[in-house]
Amino acid sequence: MIEAPKSPESTLQRILNAAIAEISAYGSARTTVVSIAQAAGMTHANVYRHFASKTALFDAISLGWLKPVEAQLGEIADSPDPARDKLERLITALFRAYRDRLDADPRLFDLFVDAFKENRSPARQHRARIRILLDRIFEEGLSTGSLAIKSREKAMILVFDTLYRFLQPEAIRIDHEIPRRSIEARLVLTMSMLVRALAGSII
Asked: Which fold does the domain 55-199 belong to in CATH?
């Protein structure tokens, strides 16, 4: 029997799965396009037909992981909860998604850290998506009176500056040795102060 040719989608997924397995086992620095191709049972030329470079392949892995995370955050932003509650839920969900990824596979999380360090496409797109969701919550909070900020842009800066430790992948990586319960307790305290600031019309 002659087997039907594999679709481009199945070939693409084979490459991604092989890359994930290689990175998990050996780390990104030791993973090469050749080793990924061998693990996927194909030539490295075939890998390059789908990805222009190893970095592009790594970015595709990060983007694939971020897609369901951002979908979850979008659901939170679209929920009927008050803006202040949605802000806390969104930030907490985002931190937990990062930490879950780090706990599950530090080597794969390092792909995300590198993307942020080098300001590559996954990082830029992800930051833009988070800003859109936060701005939507700010707008809703202003319209309902639960937030009293004078400048949404300054509020955005305050959120990212205050929560740097919990939203910056490299900072989360550094904090990995600290017990998760302790870090989450600090996040709760920091979020409480931040929400009070945003509700108190100080910016």
From this structure: Tetracycline Repressor; domain 2 (1.10.357)
